[in-house]
Specification:
- With 181 residues, the chain is of the alpha+beta class.
- It has helices at 18-24, 26-36, 77-84, 116-129, 172-180; strands at 44-49, 55-60, 63-64, 69-73, 87-92, 103-112, 143-147, 151-156, 166-171.
- Strands 1, 2, 3, 4, 5, 6, 7, 8 and 9 form a 9-stranded antiparallel beta sheet that branches.
C-alpha cells in the first residue's frame, strides 16, 4: 500500500468515496461539506506521515464534488509523504463563536489519480470556486489525489435537523460489514 505507483482506478482502493459516504450517511456528507466550505472555498489542514513516522500538517484547499473529495498537491514534502505512505487526516477550518466547537475530521487513504480529464475537471472547479480564470505558475505541476474516507467525525456546537450537538462518527468498515451481513 505504501508504494509510489499511482492508482488509476479509485474503486480498487480502500475506503469509501465521498459519493459512497453521501449514499449511506447523507447527513454527515452534507454537514462535512458545509464545514469544509463554510468560507466559500474548501479550507482545511492535511496531516500526512513523514518518513520518520511523525506527523506533518499543511493547510490545504480541498475540492469537493458529489462523487469525490480531492486535493491538488504541489510537488514537495506533502506529495512525497502521500506517495510513500498514503494515510492522511483532514480537518476542516476552525470557527468563531457561537460555533466554536464545530468541526469536520476525516481519515483514510489518499489515492493518486492520473486521469487527465478528471485532473482538468477538478482544476477547473478549483479555479471557478476562487473566481479565477488564469492558472498561476506551477499550477500544472500539481498532482491530483482523491481522499478516500475510512472514518469521519462531525462535531456540532448546536444540533441541526440532521445531527445532534456533540460528536457523530462514521466508520467505513463498520458500515461495509453491516451491508455484507
Amino acid at each position: 500500500m505504501g508504494g509510489t505507483k499511482p492508482i488509476s482506478t479509485p474503486s480498487s482502493s480502500p475506503g469509501a468515496t465521498w459519493g459512497d459516504l453521501g449514499a449511506v450517511r447523507p447527513d454527515i456528507a452534507a454537514a462535512g461539506g458545509r464545514l469544509l466550505y463554510s468560507f466559500g472555498i474548501g479550507l482545511g489542514f492535511l496531516a500526512t506521515v513523514r518518513v520518520d513516522g511523525g506527523p506533518r500538517v499543511h493547510p490545504i484547499c480541498p475540492v469537493l464534488t458529489e462523487s469525490g473529495l480531492y486535493g491538488m498537491i504541489i510537488p514537495g514534502p506533502r506529495l512525497m509523504d502521500l506517495r510513500r505512505d498514503p494515510r492522511y487526516a483532514l480537518h476542516g477550518e476552525t470557527y468563531p463563536p457561537p460555533h466554536q466547537d464545530d468541526a469536520f475530521y476525516v481519515t483514510g487513504v489518499a489515492v493518486e489519480l492520473t486521469d487527465p480529464v478528471l485532473w482538468e475537471r477538478i482544476a477547473n472547479q478549483m479555479l471557478t470556486e476562487r473566481s479565477l480564470t488564469e492558472r498561476w505558475p506551477g499550477f500544472e505541476a500539481q498532482v491530483l489525489f482523491e481522499f478516500r474516507v475510512e472514518r469521519c467525525l462531525v462535531t456540532l456546537t448546536q444540533a441541526t435537523e440532521e445531527l445532534p450537538a456533540g460528536h457523530t462518527v462514521w466508520r467505513y468498515l463498520e458500515s461495509n460489514s453491516r451491508r455484507d451481513a
